[in-house]
Amino acid sequence: MDTLFAVFLFLIPIFLLLTRRQKSSERLPPGSLGLPLIGQSLGLLRAMRANTAEKWLEQRIRKYGPVSKLSLFGKPTVFVHGQAANKLVFTSDGSTTSAQQTESIRRILGERGIFELSAEDHKRVRNALMLFLKPESLKQYVGKMDEEIRKHLEVNWHGKQQVTVLPLMKKLTFNIICSLLFGLERGARRDEFVECFQKLVDGVWSVPINLPFTRYNGSFKASKRIQNMIKVLIHEKRVQLEQKTASPQQDLITCFLSIRNDDGKEELTELEMVHNIMVVMVAGHETSSVLLTFLLRILAIEPYVYAAVLQEQEEIARSKLSGEFLTWEDLAKMKYTWRAAQETLRMTPPVFGGFRNVVKDIEFGGFLIPKGWQIFWVAPMTHMDDRIFPEPSKFDPTRFDKQSSFPPYCFVPFGGGPRLCPGIDFARIETLIAMHHIVTQFTWKLCADNHFGRDPVLVPSRGLPIEIMSRTVL
Known about the structure:
The chain is α+β, with helices and mostly antiparallel strands and 474 residues long.
């Protein structure tokens, strides 16, 4: 009897453990994790490149419901969508979810980038970025950005009958980043940055298999090379500041180096500087170049939008002297142009979605999302919801006349809440200045079909070749 009782006592905790595991498993969202490491990654990537990712996700929703589990980029994942999902993603203080990206993104861009940080670290780095990227600081760079865009058009557009927009927009935005954020002017050094950078972005969204033939491997190597180049730049800028041959607001690097904590030491570690410079490079280059490309595309196929943008920009051009740079006050008058850009971001957001790491077990939609898993959210699911945006397939910039009428966390091309992208004003200034000069100096028409895919950001057919004709500058 004693032996039987002892066995019974031994089996009780095992039974309770198995029961709890079974109940926990029953509370997981429906779906399948698929094959180890690969999971559904290849299926999602194929759908993105074919511009069928929304349909791919809609099929999941029809099959499993609004919350489902899968495996993406080597990690168990829960797909969520809608306003409540966006709010969950963008308002977490780090106690439930953290902004850790996929393994491939984290290894390539660095673990101390702003998208990887939570709580006080996130706030500290964000404050450092905002010292440079806030509107009050950016005002002084409008003229320099204007000059960079004029040079780009003179070299790459004037005298041409046809141009391919996407690679030129990537070239333009990267040159602006090099000039304004890093103080790196044209030359061999900038060219080396461009070469490495293109290899880096090719593998940001990829299965993290580090073998010589993979995109991830090439991107990872390019990341290491770029980080070493940035460290050299930081050292040079630190010396220039000490010798007083550079100013604290000269560029992003000198701004970082000038921020001190209460002990008089640099607020950011060198690793944080490097990794956040990497983040700014990728975010500023990819999103802005895609926005400019797709804005030019929409102006070519929506004559009434083009006419309204042109009228607004011509009025500003008539108020300027020949060769005079645009000012902050001029940008404030470009209201319709920015609304057209916002509508472009709604219908074709450059960033399809993102990931959040689950710090502790959380409940969402009646299901358990376990600690250690990741959450996958996507922007188009609210952007194209007809309950939020009536006639979502219609391009209508006037819907942004009263943006406050939209429910919060539904228009999220730049994130939201405490996770709003600190570079939103930089992107707005860059877009408005570029569009001013392009629409007042050129007319254009498309030379390819209107299709596009994602790799991982938006890519139009053949890079969007257009036929261009010069206009008389007013």
